[in-house]
């Protein structure tokens, strides 16, 4: 299945999808050393996003979240790519400074956790295998 | 700049700005007069932020006047204020990275008082929500609410994407608030900001038009800006016969609210925690003006404070207070200056039980971030509490 969205930050990545219906705050919500979601009560609490295709509606929380994403890139704990319904400034800036491929305007209901996904962010395309 | 001809920092910066421009459908890039950067306290940035700044500082240099938000400590007086050595070391690494890029390292939330002073109509890229609100509303300059990296990107390129508050058609008042009671003093203006900010949040609007305020000082407007930005996410307001663009756009007519004496009393009681034991007084949120410091000096003359008492201000204002002799009077009374920093960004979580302030913004962060009980009053009442 091929989903067409909008390029936020260029690049191509392939990996396993991890999908949530809840927004994500990287600052305080994700541990940059382990890549684990630590926000109490979050749908993904306890799961790691490292090397995966992270699929969620939009970002939330402090603008410091962009820096947390940068730290994850340095620690090799960052997601391989990010897919959103509607991008927000924090995630957009985080992807740019951390060089994480990112696409938005995707109907994320079409993607299930565990599926193999190729994100061609340069073309704005998400392919679900 | 996008092709890397001006170096890597400029390329990364332009990538950030063009992407934001595409997302928010900007029609062009505009030149900015100046930049104010937030995300300076090491407590908020951490190693992640610092690492990013160091990379940008490798070949990045600012093209326009750029100043910094408060840091996590007074850069000269941190030991007296109980900041630990490791934190101080890391905070200085952050400031060094900014300095390397040619940024003026006065750390203040009131850049408009200390030389980063735009004029009516000029474009800016400012972070720090209270200063954004002041610049848009009181000065009539134009800026969106920037985050740390986007503000830095504008500093390095000298540009910002033209959308949002940069464009006249996004600057119209949306909700009319008529104030039916006399508002004066920094505490009352802050309380008014909370009332209006809360209401705007409820109805999903951002730009208030306010009438019924006969006069307002810089200090009162500064307090109002900080509060309405904290509680309502407001970046722009119009105040009848007070702010420069109040009659430029049609008055909003379909959404009208009145604010009376009882509303102010109710909002004040919401800001005062019950049975709070006050062991910390902090004045200067946003950073104190020389005028406020002069009144504090007058009130503290020949008195002794019996509680921890901080006056948070910008370094240049502190120097002015030294020259004018205010600092001596204030320090003799046992109060302390905390320049370059403030009670919102300093690492003081749970260090005190209760804080008394004259600022509604400081109440919000005192509670949420530092887990203090809070109390709001006039500067006179704060000093009474400190000396009793």
What features would you describe in this structure?
- The complex is a heterodimer of chains A (129) and B (388).
- With 129 residues, chain A is α/β, with parallel strands linked by helices.
- Chain A contains 3 helices and 10 strands, in the order βββαβββαβαβββ.
- In chain A, the strands form 2 sheets. Chain A has an 8-stranded mixed sheet with strand order 1-10-9-3-6-7-8-2.
- In chain A, β4 and β5 form a beta hairpin.
- The mean pLDDT of chain A is 94.
- Chain B is of the alpha/beta class and 388 residues long.
- Chain B has 13 helices and 15 strands.
- In chain B, the strands form 4 sheets. In chain B, strands 13-12-11-14-15 form a 5-stranded parallel sheet, sandwiched between helices. In chain B, strands 4-3-2-5 form a 4-stranded parallel sheet, sandwiched between helices.
- The relative contact order of chain B is 0.13.
- The mean pLDDT of chain B is 95.
- At the A-B interface, α2 and α3 of A face α1, α2 and α5 of B.
Features:
heterodimer, A: 129 residues, alpha/beta, 8-stranded mixed beta sheet, globular, B: 388 residues, 4-stranded parallel beta sheet, 13 helices
Topology:
The complex is a heterodimer of chains A (129) and B (388).
Chain A: E1 2-4, E2 6-9, E3 12-19, H1 26-29, E4 30-31, E5 36-37, E6 53-56, H2 65-74, E7 81-84, H3 89-98, E8 102-104, E9 116-120, E10 125-128
Parallel strand pairs in A: 3-6, 6-7, 7-8
Antiparallel strand pairs in A: 1-10, 2-8, 3-9, 4-5, 9-10
Helix pairs in contact in A: 2-3
Chain B: H1 8-23, E1 29-31, E2 34-37, H2 42-59, E3 65-68, H3 85-100, E4 104-107, E5 124-126, H4 129-139, H5 148-157, E6 159-161, E7 175-179, H6 186-203, E8 208-211, H7 218-232, E9 238-239, E10 256-259, H8 261-271, E11 280-283, H9 290-300, E12 308-313, H10 315-324, H11 326-332, E13 336-339, E14 354-357, H12 360-368, E15 373-376, H13 379-387
Parallel strand pairs in B: 2-3, 2-5, 3-4, 7-8, 7-10, 8-9, 11-12, 11-14, 12-13, 14-15
Antiparallel strand pairs in B: 1-6
């Amino acid at each position: 299945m091929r989903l067409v969205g909008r390029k936020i930050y260029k690049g191509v990545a392939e990996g396993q999808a991890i999908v949530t219906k809840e927004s994500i705050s990287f600052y305080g919500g994700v541990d940059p050393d382990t890549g684990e979601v630590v926000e109490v009560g979050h749908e993904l609490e306890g799961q790691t996003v490292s090397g995966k295709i992270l699929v969620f509606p939009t970002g939330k929380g402090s603008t410091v979240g962009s820096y947390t994403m940068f730290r994850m890139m340095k620690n090799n704990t960052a997601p391989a790519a990010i897919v959103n319904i509607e991008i927000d400034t924090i995630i957009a800036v985080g992807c740019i400074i951390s060089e994480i491929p990112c696409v938005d305007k995707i109907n994320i209901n079409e993607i299930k956790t565990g599926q193999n996904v190729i994100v061609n962010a340069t073309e704005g395309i998400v392919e679900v295998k | 700049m996008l092709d890397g001809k001006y170096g890597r920092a400029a390329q990364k910066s332009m990538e950030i700005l063009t992407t934001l421009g595409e997302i928010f459908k900007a029609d062009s890039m505009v030149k900015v007069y100046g930049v104010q950067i937030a995300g300076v306290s090491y407590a908020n940035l951490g190693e992640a932020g610092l690492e990013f700044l160091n990379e940008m500082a490798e070949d990045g240099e600012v093209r326009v006047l750029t100043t910094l938000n408060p840091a996590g400590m007074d850069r000269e007086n941190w030991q007296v204020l109980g900041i630990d050595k490791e934190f101080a070391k890391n905070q200085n690494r952050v400031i060094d990275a900014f300095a390397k890029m040619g940024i003026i390292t006065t750390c203040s939330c009131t850049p408009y008082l200390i030389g980063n002073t735009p004029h009516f109509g000029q474009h800016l890229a400012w972070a720090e929500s209270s200063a954004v609100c002041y610049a848009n509303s009181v000065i009539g300059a134009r800026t969106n609410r920037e985050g740390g990296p986007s503000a830095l990107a504008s500093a390095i390129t000298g540009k910002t994407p033209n959308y949002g508050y940069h464009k006249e058609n996004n600057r119209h008042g949306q909700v009319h608030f008529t104030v039916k009671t006399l508002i004066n003093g920094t505490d009352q203006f802050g309380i008014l900001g909370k009332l209006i900010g809360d209401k705007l949040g409820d109805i999903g609007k951002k730009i208030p038009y306010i009438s019924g305020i006969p006069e307002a000082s810089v200090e009162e407007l500064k307090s109002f800006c900080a509060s309405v930005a904290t509680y309502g996410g407001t970046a722009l307001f119009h105040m009848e016969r007070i702010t420069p663009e109040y009659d430029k756009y049609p008055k909003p007519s379909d959404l009208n609210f009145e604010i009376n004496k009882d509303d102010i009393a109710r909002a004040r009681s919401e800001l005062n925690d019950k049975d709070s034991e006050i062991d910390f007084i902090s004045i200067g949120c946003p950073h104190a003006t020389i005028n406020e410091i002069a009144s504090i000096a007058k009130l503290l003359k020949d008195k002794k404070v019996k509680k921890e008492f901080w006056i948070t201000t910008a370094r240049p204002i502190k120097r002015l207070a030294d020259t004018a002799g205010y600092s001596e009077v204030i320090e003799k009374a046992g109060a302390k200056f905390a320049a370059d920093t403030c009670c919102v960004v300093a690492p003081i979580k749970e260090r005190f039980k209760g804080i008394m302030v004259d600022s509604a913004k400081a109440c919000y962060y005192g509670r949420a971030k530092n887990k203090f009980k809070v109390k709001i009053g006039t500067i006179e009442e704060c000093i009474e509490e400190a000396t009793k």
